[in-house]
Amino acid sequence: MPERTAERILGMAKEALMGIAKVHRYEVHARKTDDRRVALESSGKRTLRVATPPDFRGGVQGTWSPEELLVGSLATCFELTLAAIAERARVPLHAVEVGGTGHVEGTAGRYHFVAIELDVRIVTDPEREEDVREVADLTRERCIVESALKTPVRLDLRVEVTSDALASSGRPWAW
C-alpha cells in the first residue's frame, strides 16, 4: 500500500504543478518547395524561405539556412530576454546589439555545431555596468533557446556607458 500512496501523492503534486506552470506551444510547419528549399510557416506570420546553406553541395545563396536560423534564434532570444529582465529590474539599456556566430564541424560525413559565440554590446548609464553584467548572467539562465541547446555558448559581453544627455538625445549608435 505505501507504493500506491506515494504514487497518489506524486500524481497530486504533478497536477498541482501543472495548475501553476505556464505551458506555451510554438508550432511551425515546414514543407518542401523545390529541390533544396523549404517554406517554414507558422499561423499568422509571413512564410520564411529556408534552404541548404551555400557551404554544402547544392546549397542556395541568398536564402536563410537552418544553421543561421538556429544562431539567429539564440541571438534574438538573448536580446529579448535581456530587455525583459532589465525592464523588470529597472536597469537602463540605451543600446543593445547581439551578434552571433555558429561553428560547425564535419567528421566522417556528419556535421554538428561545436560552439556558438554571442558578441553582446550594451550601453547603459554610468555606474550601472555591474547591474548590466548581472542582468546578462541572469539572461543566460533564462534564455529558453540557450537552455534547449547542448552546444556550448560563449558570451563576449562589452558594457559601455553614456551620459544621460547623449542617451536621451535619440541619436542612433554607430555599431
List keywords for this structure.
6 strands, disordered C terminus, 5 helices, 175 residues, three-stranded antiparallel sheet, three-stranded mixed sheet, alpha+beta
Short account of what is shown:
This protein is α+β, with helices and mostly antiparallel strands and 175 residues long.
Distance between the termini: 67 Å
| Count of beta strands | 6
Query: Strand content of the residues, in percent?
Result: 25-35%
- The structure class reads alpha+beta
Number of helices: 5
Q: What is the H-and-E element order?
A: HEEEHEEHHEH
Largest sheet: 3 strands, antiparallel
What does this structure look like?
Helices cover 38% and strands 30% of the residues. It is built from 5 helices and 6 strands, in the order H-E-E-E-H-E-E-H-H-E-H. The chain has helices at residues 2-20, 66-89, 129-142, 144-148, 164-168, and strands spanning 29-34, 37-41, 48-51, 95-107, 110-124, 153-161. Strand 1 and strand 2 (37-41) form a beta hairpin. The chain is globular and about 55 Å long. Mean pLDDT is 87; it is low at 171-175.
What secondary-structure arrangement, pairings included, does this model have?
Blueprint: H1 2-20, E1 29-34, E2 37-41, E3 48-51, H2 66-89, E4 95-107, E5 110-124, H3 129-142, H4 144-148, E6 153-161, H5 164-168
Parallel strand pairs: 5-6
Antiparallel strand pairs: 1-2, 2-3, 4-5
